[in-house]
Amino acid sequence: MKILRKHFRVWKRLSALAIGSYLSSRVDSASYLLGKLIRFGFFLLLIVSIFRFTKTLAGYSRYEVIFFFLTFNLIDVFSQAFFRGIYQFKNDILRGNFDYVLSKPVNALFYSMSRLTDVLDIVFLVPIVLLIFYTAGKLPAPITAGAVILYVLLLISGVLIVLGIHILSASITIWIIESENVIWLYREAMTLGRFPPEIFPGTVRVVFTFVLPILLAVAFPAKAFLGLLSWRWILFAFGYTVSFFCLSLLLWRASLAKYSSASS
Amino acid sequence: MATIEVENLSKIYESYRKKPGLRGSLKGLFHRETFFTSAVNGISFSVSEGELVGFLGPNGAGKTTTLKMLSGILYPTSGDAKVLGFTPARRQREYQKQFALVMGQKNQLWWDLPARESILLNKEIYEIPDGEFERNLAELSDLLEIRDILDVPVRKLSLGQRMKCELVTALIHDPKVLFLDEPTIGLDVVAQKNIRDFIRRYNQDRKTTVLLTSHYMEDISQLCDRVIIIDAGRIIFDGRLADLIQAYAPHKVLTVTFADCLPPASRLQRYGELVETGHYKAIIRIPREDSKRIAADLLNSDLPVDDILIGEVAVDEVVRKIFQGRSGTNSG
Hints:
The complex is a heterodimer. Chain A is mostly helical. Chain A has helices at residues 2-24, 26-50, 62-82, 89-95, 97-102, 108-114, 119-138, 145-175, 181-190, 202-211, 214-225, 231-258. In chain A, 37% of the residues are buried. Chain B is α/β, with parallel strands linked by helices. Chain B has 2 domains: 4-245, Rossmann fold (3-Layer(aba) Sandwich); 250-311, Alpha-Beta Plaits (2-Layer Sandwich), CATH 3.30.70. Chain B has helices at residues 21-30, 63-70, 93-96, 115-125, 130-143, 159-171, 189-206, 217-223, 241-248, 265-268, 291-300, 315-331; strands at residues 4-17, 33-47, 52-56, 78-83, 99-103, 177-181, 209-213, 226-231, 234-240, 251-258, 273-277, 281-287, 305-312. Chain B has a 6-stranded mixed beta sheet, sandwiched between helices. In chain B, strands 11-12-10-13 form a 4-stranded antiparallel beta sheet, covered by helices on one side. A 3-stranded antiparallel beta sheet of chain B has the order 2-1-4. In chain B, strand 6 (177-181), helix 7 and strand 7 form a beta-alpha-beta unit. The mean pLDDT of chain B is 88. The A-B interface holds A 6, 9-10, 12-14, 16-17, 20-21, 24-25, 95-97, 99-100, 102-106, 257, 259-261, 263-264 and B 13-14, 64, 68, 71-75, 91, 93, 96-97, 99, 101, 103, 105-108, 110, 112-113, 117-118, 120-122, 124-127, 153, 181-182.
């Protein structure tokens, strides 16, 4: 408990530093937030436009498709907000800043992930959550307590998978310094989750459910909320998440033993 | 018990070699040539509590790698290291709270923000109580005279000011052991002296054990009684600076000042090797064991000697000769 309290205090301080950095470049920060809003707005508009020409998409109604899109955004923006440090990880290694992290009494993985908490993305989470409430109210089926609990649990499971992918990316960066692109591979693959999985061919669904479990992370919570996920798949999702997350931690530990530090 | 104990410590780096050009890059996708570099090769030494030891060696000698192994950043390939009774590679929190690492070529300060912010972050990381934090910050910032720059964004500070802030940030938790890797690199002579003065005072006041690496001989000769010289991953000397000179400099230097013009070189060369001459001054290198006798001979001669000074060969010259000799041996 003491360790958790300490790490929460460190996180608060890191976030304060990140806010300080953002405020020192206000124009950049405002442009960044505006860019995100435009991208988000245009995609929402695209979905609405598609439904001007069709009643369903892969069997889903307009608000169901929007619900998938919002759930994807919730997990994506959450991970962008809280695990942003990973995008600086290769730089940290090359510049030797990670040496300092490793020499301090703080969890190196926690520090590296959260050292750049993105406050702008946290702000962006607010309208996403509000839109999820609004869209859920527009869905044809009634909302049950069980569906809400499952949705929340699978959201947590999804965040853990995304966190696991970030940890894997960091581990590979330590093993092979040139591997900055692993995290960008994830970023590109993640966009798959903006639509219901049924619009993609079966092979794509299999790869992005079992190999790089993007669909498991972002599509499963929405499907469970809509009552379209069997218990077998729900149990599989939780089991897979735990295994995947533990594997990523094991690889992280192994990579730290291999760490060779940048030359001075 | 020694504060730092190192026994047969070795580190071998594994790297990959890529052939040049596009063809080499394509080949590298499927097959990369692995090669191993021995950075530290079975070194052993110990450092007592409160000692300030200089770690000296050319680039790539293994100094920084040793400091990184002692800080727990790198896993040793073989051998043992113990600092304050802890094995650094285990990265235990209890150990990490008791040492500090400062690297002159890297920084831990947040670039866009004032140094105070980074120091406050370390307060949380090292779990320093408020009272102790305020006391340490006041003492360190007074010693380094940086009270007025703590709230200026780091990017606006000079290199010397930044290094002072780095030191405060690293030392805010009052460590028992301090690893300093090239702390004066790139600084002007005044800033170098300020940092040196601080390190000396800090070591004396707090009895902190300090291991210092530097390229500047001045740092080592001004601060350290004891020096460890490392070359190609092996320790080639470990002892007092004075003993280093005794061991590697069989000569002393005689600086002779004349009341009149300089006598002919042929007359001076009878006493030893003439190194340098001026209008009224000559520097003669003489065998160590004969230094007193030769000085007396000079005074008793008919030469117009005004003053004689017997001195040691400069430490940097000794060290340079050691490395030149070894590189000759290695390449041969």
